[in-house]
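Supplementary Text 2. Reproducibility record for the structural model of the 316-residue chain.

All settings were left at their defaults, and a single model was retained for analysis rather than an ensemble. We include the record here because the model underlies the residue-level annotations in Supplementary Table 4.
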Amino acid sequence: MLKLFKNIFLFCYILTLNPLLAQQIDSPELQNILLSKRTVSETNRPFALIGTVYANIDSGDLVFSIINGEGGEDSNNFLIWENKLYLINFEEGEISYETKSVYHVLIQCQQTDGRNIIIEKSFDILVKNINEAPIDIELEEEEISLGAGFGDEITVIKAIDEDENDFHSFRLVPGEGSDDNASFRIIEDRLLSARFGFRRPNFNIRIRCEDRRGLAYEKAFVLTTNIGLERLSQFSDEKTQVNVYPNPATDMLYVEKEGVSNLEVYDINGRKLLSKKLNQNNKHSLDISSLQNGNYFLNLKPKTNKPDQRVQIMKR
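Retained model, structure tokens:
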């Protein structure tokens, strides 16, 4: 019994002389590293807060740090400040799901109460994809054919969006650069003509693109025409076998074409000014003396269900 009391006294004396040893015996051992959150939303800033780093024990004697190694392939993109984990990407200038959706970081924790226990743990940080507005609009073609008629396709519209497989709708809207919107219409992703003929060098339109959640982008376009082809002494199309002369004409215009039932003359705004029903001959004439000097379109309506043909003419 005396020996037992002696050992207890000696143990208490050692603890009195070495409080650090007493702290080690009383405090639990470091075993695990924890993270309050493992996801981050996209942001146009080069850094983002992930969450709080902590351990299985609540102690002021813990030091957290980012290290390289297996499971920490992206550790250089992280930092810890006051036990807060941050994702940083100064090279790209933003945190983008489309650029990188998963980051791998390796965290080390050291217990500095004298036992010097060190553990490591890797984490996968997921970037949450959020809906973003379109960033641009492109047209497949920006040149209009002089002979384009009502309903003809001018070009295909394309949205530029970082969100892959997003749905987009297009429409013409008022605003800067929309002076000629009335000359066009949009069906789905197709820009169509809403007039007969384009007799100016340039046409200005403004298009709005919206994604499935209503985020939008607008852009103005200047469409050009191949106006340099307008002065022709005679129009002859071997592919369609139609011959119109003289062109320009002063009073009488002659047309050589088989299978035509009617000749119609339209102004550049699509208004019908003249119409003539034809006989069975292949050579036809049309009196255009009543027209004012300027540019017009001659529409040839076939007797069959074939498409109409349009020819550019000039009255002088």
